[in-house]
Amino acid sequence: MSAALLHHFAADAAPAARLADALQADAALIEVHRFPDGESRVRVARTASTALVYCSLNDPNGKLVELLLAAAALRDGGAARVMLIAPYLGYMRQDIAFRPGEAVSQKVIGRLLADTFDGVLTIDPHLHRIATLGEAIPVIPAIAISATPLLAAELTGASDTILAGPDSESHQWVSEVARLCGLPFLVGAKQRHGDRHVEVVYPEAGEIAGKRAVLVDDLISSGRTLIEAAGALYAAGAERVDALASHCLASDADLAALGEAGIATIRATDSVAGDVNTIPSASLLADAIRDNGWLEASNP
């Protein structure tokens, strides 16, 4: 038996197969039967000493229980190490209690994952007030890799193009993509007008006129900030606006609204299933898995 086997749920079958190919490893489906009362029966394949589990944690409420059951079954089946590959990692956004009585979900879910897995690998976690993934998930190793090389590759050969971050939080992604592909960039600033309306402005608006602008961010969710940013870019004279992101969770209605706002194309990695999530992340994940020794057999 090989030193590692990639276990995955049915919802992740396509990206897990791509990752298994990149690793030259076998993939095994985690079987799930859901009973009428809402409970699940989970069955895993015979495991190697290191079990890799692929489970992207969008819609986490519907996935976490079955993921925990699978991890327990793998340990019962003889796995010495159980490593989680979660290209998108949910519950990372709330790192403080915004109002009295709120749960700090990042800490709760982070501790749960740390207690269950021997390592966690993800792509561009949406962290606000902490610097490293290890602060959220206190397990070694807790590895966060960036999709910026994949996003930059989408811009190979681009000319008359400027990259635009929609807000200050996007600076780390748009600046790195710009560095990798040699394109100029600028970052928008949010201006609030009352409780409900947020405007995005670009102080260096004069650099935009006549160019294609590509919005770059880590996460597209509702898309409201991107819609405001696209409007600001067109107002500054952009001829076309596209968008690139590490992750896209937008619904069909959200994507339609982004298109109506003039965003010509949207592309994101395949961390989450979706029509615009077409940039393969398998090579990036495979390199991190190999570099961190996750394919090596673990001593009992």
Please identify the top-level CATH class of the largest domain.
Answer: Alpha Beta
- Rg (CA only): 20 Å
The helix-and-strand class reads alpha/beta
User: What fold name stands as the CATH topology of the largest domain?
Assistant: Rossmann fold
Summary of the model, kept short:
This protein is of the alpha/beta class and about 300 residues long. The chain is built from nine helices and 16 strands.
Structural commentary:
The chain has 300 residues and is of the alpha/beta class. The chain folds into 2 domains: 4-147 and 281-291, Rossmann fold; 149-279, Rossmann fold (3-Layer(aba) Sandwich), CATH 3.40.50. 29% of the residues lie in helices and 27% in strands. It has 9 helices and 16 strands. The protein has helices spanning 13-23, 64-76, 105-116, 133-136, 148-153, 171-181, 224-235, 252-260, 282-291, and strands at 4-8, 27-29, 31-34, 40-43, 50-54, 81-85, 119-123, 142-145, 161-165, 185-187, 189-193, 197-201, 212-220, 240-248, 263-269, 277-279. The strands form 4 sheets. The protein has a 6-stranded parallel beta sheet, with helices on both faces. A 6-stranded parallel beta sheet has the order 10-9-13-14-15-16. The protein has a two-stranded antiparallel sheet with strand order 3-4. The longest helix is centred in the first third of the chain and has 13 residues, at 64-76. The protein is globular, with a radius of gyration of 20 Å.
